[in-house]
Amino acid sequence: NYMGLNEIREKYLSFFESKGHLRLPSFSLVPQNDKSLLLINAGMAPLKPYFTGQEVPPRKRVTTCQKCIRTGDIERVGKTARHGTFFEMLGNFSFGDYFKEEATAWAWEFATEVLKLPKDRLYVSIYEEDDEAFEIWTKKVGVPADRIYRMGKEDNFWEIGQGPCGPCSELYFDRGEDKGCGKPDCKVGCDCDRFIEFWNLVFTQFNKEEDGTYSRLENPNIDTGMGLERIATIMQGVDSIFEVDTIKAILDKVCEVANYKYNTDEAKDVSVRVITDHIRSVTFMVSDGILPSNEGRGYVLRRLLRRAARHGKLLGINKAFLYNICDVVIENSKTAYPELEEKRDFIKKVIKLEEERFDETIDQGLSILNQYIEELKAQNKNVLDGESAFKLYDTYGFPIELTIEILDEHNIKVDMQGFEKEMEAQKERARSAREETNYMGTDIDIYATLPAELTTEFVGYTSTEGNGEV
Ligand code: ATP
Ligand code: MG
Ligand code: MG
Ligand code: MG
Fold it and tell me: I want to staple 320 with a disulfide (CB 3.0 to 4.6 A). Which of 121, 128, 216, 355 is the partner?
């Protein structure tokens, strides 16, 4: 029962249209009027004003496919089968309209009747105290009780500080023993890739009060999120999200440029997957008007792009290449995201500029970093001083996270206090001598040559806020 990723997206949205939902296009990756978030990380995030009642939704039932970025998952990318920094989240939402029963029944209907997933490979998790959900799953939907797992707050209760919150229920698919860790106690909830979580149904039924107590909401909401890449992985029976049709096309291109045969070297496979993921993030971020910078969203973009470039080096690629790979991203996603095609030239130009700038210094930076590693090892030390880490950042354009990551491969840490001190000192110097530019501080001049209308949503320079998620 093969389905392409683009086909699954359409099936989902039209299914929920048939259940009375209004289909809205994906919102920008840049949050609007939301200082708590650096980048949109879930389908519900741009809809928050409808959930809180701040704004009136165009309809009480809405369905979307939302582009998302979670840099919090960056270290898992390429290592697990199921995490990307970029992914698309399908969702159906109820703003005080239908609730648990419909949300649950429709999720099951879509999974088993539209996607035709075999019932004997599906599992469900619920919040341990949510007996109502247990009743619905067993009595109304007909899922055997032994396929339902009760889980604690960390996994199955959604809340952020005060305000609307509630239990959730998740759908899992058993991909079979050969995809798992093989441990005897491996079951739903195991961190390996056998039982893969693909859909989260959030039942927003409480309000968390100031004193920490929960009161019942008069009009409870529904917020669901299904990872499109994950469900496509399941539908296509492939090993990971990187082998899903539209993403495999990117992966193949990376392998072609690197002249490398996928699945022949585990470390190189990780690099291929990292590049494949990061170029998706980068392409979509630029299409939403984000430009590389040293702060906020722009820094996230820079970090992803430079991390991808470094993995390119690990594959032996010795020229700027990402700006060409983004064509494959655009080709495969442009029907759902027409802005990609509209901004193709702009996206390529931004990526190329940033890539070429880093390309000027990356080789030198890597060889200096290797020198540091040799020296530290010879001296039996395992901490790099802040001054050296700062030099890599300032002179060679190494995002500190990249330095940390490379050193970590050798069990070496960075003296972060020392690094921050250097950073402060540099900011101080910059304040007193504005005209003096350094390698990392010249963005404004370079990107000023790009047409302004293409960067309208760009708010990177001033934004420093954010939460742990991104
Ligand atoms: P996991 O436990 O696997 O990290 P999650 O519980 O953090 O996932 P949710 O916050 O519940 O994920 O998001 C809803 C859905 O979005 C998930 O069920 C999954 O299908 C998808 N999803 C979440 N994070 C990612 C990611 N990094 N890459 C791809 N899909 C993701
Ligand atoms: Mg997660
Ligand atoms: Mg989870
Ligand atoms: Mg989840």
Answer: 355
